[in-house]
Write a structure and sequence with these properties.
- The relative contact order is 0.29.
- The chain has strands at about 5-10, 15-30, 30-35, 40-45, 45-55, 60-65.
- It is globular and about 35 Å long.
- The chain has about 70 residues and is mostly beta strands.
- It has a six-stranded mixed beta sheet, with no helix packed on it.
């Protein structure tokens, strides 16, 4: 099964793994909600989606400029 690994990209620190085995992604009211196959949910604020790589099963996020 190809589920996503989710990273937040930081120019100084590189990529930081935030979640794995993500099956659902919801964007609402300025947040991105990630839900894994066990229905555990992670909510992130002030992030934008950079890319979704289905072949490598990777979702990249970036913090918004403050």
């Amino acid at each position: 099964m190809c589920l996503l690994k989710v990273y937040v990209v930081d120019e100084a620190a590189g990529k930081k793994l935030i979640a794995r085995d993500v099956a659902f992604i919801f964007k609402e009211d300025g947040t991105v909600k990630l839900r894994n196959i066990e229905f555990e949910e992670t909510t992130l604020t002030n992030v934008d989606i950079i890319s979704i790589d289905a072949l490598s099963s990777i979702l990249l996020l970036k913090e918004r400029e403050k």
